[in-house]
Amino acid sequence: MGKKKTDVRVLNKNGTLLDIIKEFTGYKGTATTRLFLSELGYGTRFSDPRIAEGLNTWLNVNGYSNQINHLIISGGIFPEFPPLYSVGNAERMRLLDQDPEKKETPTSPRIENLFEHLLGPKDAANFAEYRKKWLTGKINTWEDCKQMASKQLETTLSGMEISRIDYCHGDEDRFNMRYEEELKVNRLAKEARGYIKSLKDQLKELEKEVVVYSRERADESVKFAKINVELSVLKSIKPKLTKHLRSKKPKVKEFINRLISENEDGLFQDLNQKQKDDLRRRLKTIEDETSFNVLYQDKADVTKNSETKRKEAGKNLNDTNKKIKPLEEEISVIERQLEQGDAITIFTKRARISPIEAEWMYKSVKDQYIKDLFDCFPEKYRDRLTTHVSGSAKLINITYGEGKDDILKEADLNVINGNILVMHNTRFSSNATSLNGLSDAQQELLWRKALEKIVHESKGLIPETIVIAHGAGGLGVTRVNASPEFKALDGSYREEPAIVTIMTLPTMHSTDKLLKFYDKGMNKNWGTKRFAKKMHGTGPVIETILEDGSIIPFTIDDSSLMKIADQKRKMETFKKESPKYKAEEEKLRQMCSLMPKIKAMLSDIHIGAPNFAGTPSNYERFNRSINYLATNYNNLDELILSEVPDGVLPHTESDRKFMGTPLPKLREEITDYLKKNLLAKGDQVSTEDYSAALDRVIDLFTNSLSQNALPNLDQQYEAIRPYIERMVKEIAPNQTTLMSGNHARSREGADEGTRLAGIVREYDNENKIKIVVSDAIGHKFGGQGGVKEQGTGKFIGYHHEPEGGKNALPRTLSHLLSSNYGYDEFFTGHIHTPYVGYANGVAVTIAPACEGPTDYSIKLPVASSPYGTIIKFSNAAPIGHPANEIIWHAWHFVNDNTLERAEYKNDKLDNLLEKLAAPGKKKL
């Protein structure tokens, strides 16, 4: 990224957030953009078609149509559609929405006639009024569900060009498929008797065939035996006749007659009388060899034909018997099933079916359901769509502490595209409805266990993003190290840390409709139960990943999308290209425009704290964050600092081993020494010179570690000064907000915010920076600072230390909402974990720490989190501007994986060492 060229915020122009960043910062790199939609709620009364319409309008007007690479949907394309009534299903049925394009409910005449018959005309008339309001166009069939989903998806994706879509099945999908399987089992059991009758009919037909084939085989066997005996007589005569024919004067007729008369009893002994008479008569007609051969062949052909028919009848008989046996077994099995349990039992929903039948029904239901899903998407996207039915891994019995507290019983995991893990539904053993019910330490353990299992089962894969849906609490984004500091999960060291983004998604349910139906008593469903937790966010999430590894999550509230849809509909009431149409079109464009105020927060820097060797120190981490901001955001609207000095708390005592010389000062001394003793000699540097320089560097560093030079605030603030000078000169924010940390509230020194303000003023000679001090004296949580922004009218809260102890991370937002502070945005630190959240119109930013592992931080229950900064993009449209009505928030997470890049971690010493190692120089 380069220097800022044009302030696009004053141009009132449309574009994606990435477009604005590129123009505002000069960023030239590539980026990947993903759109996340969770629990769409199509076909339910919690869904509002204006959300899809407004989202599509906003995306297209701002140029996202060609920038989104990947769409991920987690559940909710279809509603829960129960085909069978039960107490629980009754509310699901009532939650099904109305389709305004349906003319009427097909079954309504039958229902009205029934009501009139049972209740009388008066109640029937009341029902007719109710039907007109609530049942006209009611989603009443599965085809209605598909039609509603198709229309919503068509609206959402119109004009978009997305190369990949992943749909992860949600609870609605599991519910629908489970019920369809139950229906198939039920149908199988109820229709078994009719099926048995058809099988028995088939059996009777086969048994008839057995009788026919048996008779045919027996007849042909008798016929064959009879003819074969006559052929045997001719066979015995044939060789004798052949011998006689070899005599000088053969006389065939006389020879055969003499043969018959001399051997009659022996020759015809196996023949009955009729056969004897017939064969004797035929033989006496023989005149020569030819006439004998004709008789012989005739008997042979008849014998062969009879044998063929006999074998064919036998084969048919065997084939039919083979069909009968499995048919008899199948009838027997089904009859036993009917005897032991006819249809599905009412309470247990069990039926006797075979494993093969169960497997067939699962596949049949799954295949049809996936086909229905595909059919709902516009045709051009069907070859880009992948559906995920079940998880690729499951987490079971993850425990916290000594195993007394089960955090997570089971979670369905889908690994998408190699680097995104989707957990649609986390099932907690407690009554928590989301991650907000867990402590920081429990969450940390949960992610560690999840990552270990994923890495093991995927043979080394560490997902970049873990997405959680189906929970309460709106949007939440945090980042964790895949393993503490710079170690990989297998214990080996890696060059750069692996950062995993954890994102909890808001739903796409209409908040207005949730409130409406909750007030009507429809509060036994998951949607209203979560809403009742008083912490609810709705809307899409767009995640942009820059090529440097930093991420930018963006969300826009559903109420804003509905306002955009209303404006679009109003515009379309006028004739296209008319003056009124153009005026409303311009207002729509302005509503969708992005005019961000850009703020950055650096927290928990702890200048003066001890550091362990082997990982970047506090000084380096702070310096790298400044390098990034100076390079990419060199003219921020606001820079927020919190807990810059380490402070001196009574419980830490003052004998902690601090680095005697602040690292920047130490590196400066080393740089000066090397310049004088190495660079000044040019090419005349000897090996002895290098050895002496190395000894000197080691001495300087060793001596600094053995000192106790920063035990008080005065020396800590002196170490802070060079950083404040850099920020003033290189970043030059329009406003600096200085938040007092909890460490500095000690018996030594003045309030941190006030004291830092004086240092800022020393370097801000031209008095260009507006200073806001959020001091610590006499304030409790939420009251430390509240500022109303000029121009936008938004109320911004600042407080370094939120309440909650180890539970502060997940509960800061809920605490703010329950305490009714009325902030639009809230900035805090102290927790040492980067986190942002949005719910109920309030956005929370918890900055990561710049502090590294110290003798104090290693005692904390949560392992060291990513360091760095968070840049917050806020809607800065002025009061009265159409865009001021739109609620959107975006955050730029800049953490280890980015700040470890050479362009952000180098300083004067690094540059000098590079010179010493240049071509022609000896390496140090």
User: Please, what is the average pLDDT?
Assistant: 78
What form results from the Cα inertia axes? elongated
The end-to-end span amounts to 32 Å
Q: How would you sum up the major sheet? A: 12 strands, mixed
Oligomer: single chain
Radius of gyration: 44 Å
- The amount of beta strand, in percent, is 15-25%
Structural write-up:
The protein has 924 residues and is an alpha/beta fold. It has 26 helices and 23 strands. The strands form two sheets. It has a twelve-stranded mixed sheet. A hairpin with a 4-residue loop joins strand 11 (541-546) and strand 12 (551-556). The protein is elongated and about 150 Å long. The two termini are 32 Å apart. Mean pLDDT is 78; it is low at 1-8, 343-347, 428-434 and 651-659.
Short structural summary:
This protein is an alpha/beta fold. The protein has 26 helices and 23 strands. The protein is 45% helix and 15% strand.
